[in-house]
Amino acid sequence: MTSLRMFALSVVLLAAMAIAPTAQARTVNGCVLKPNAKCASKKLNWKLAYHGKLAGANFRKAKLRGADLRDANLNGIDLRSADLTNANLTGASLKNAKLSGATLTDANFTDVNVAGANLTKVNADNVSFYGAGLKKAVLTNGNFSNANFYGADFTNANLAGSNQPPPPPPFSTETPKLTTNLINANLWGSTLSGTNLTNVNLENANLYGTVAAPDPANFTGTLLYSANLSSAIFDGANFTSAFMHASSIQITALNGANFTNASLGSVVIMNSSFEGSDFTGAIFPHAIWINVVCPNGVLQSTPCAS
Length: 306
Known about the structure:
Blueprint lengths: L1 H18 L7 E2 L2 E2 L215 E3 L17 E3 L17 E3 L1 E2 L5 E2 L6
Parallel strand pairs: 3-4, 4-5
Antiparallel strand pairs: 1-2, 6-7
């Protein structure tokens, strides 16, 4: 009899479980928060707080100011032309996400994984990408002025700008054209292995301690006016036609680098090595040389021969 009762109870419990309602996905302003959600153009300013899975969701042109998406799974999400001003995405994963044309001003992307993501033409002024993973990401023609990329990984990322940025006045009066801007950006300790920085504006940027290895970085046509290039590894890097006036190069490895037609006026070069580098057409007016290993391997405190 006891066995019969237990059997009957089990049947009742199974039946109850079968008819129990499943948990409903949370809805905010008509946006159902779940993977592959259809939330394009939704107005969610200061209303979205979600830390679950939104992989593959469509938030194109959505208003997401102040959104709290910490630790969320946003892989493959569509955020094209979305407004993420002041949003917090700390620790989130946005692998292969689409962010082209998005507004990210003052957002927090600390420790975010945006590997393979498309950030073309984003406005990311003053954004924190502290420790972010940007492997193979595309950041072409975006505005990253004042952004913090401390310890970020740009391995094989593409930051190339469409046009070479002109030097600032009084060196040039040319009107700047569309390019990738990292003016005043902090790249302290970042990884630039195989990174394409062609035509990027890095005026007054901090590249202290950056490592462009094992694959060299490409700085062709880059504006590095007043940039900090100290305690870094740029062996084999390409600085062809780069404008590097007033930059600081101290305790830096630049062996085998290409400086063809580069302009390095008033640079401070100290305790650095250029062994095997190409100085063809490069100019160094008013540069300061102290304990420098020249392309011929000779240590000297006088200008190296071009």
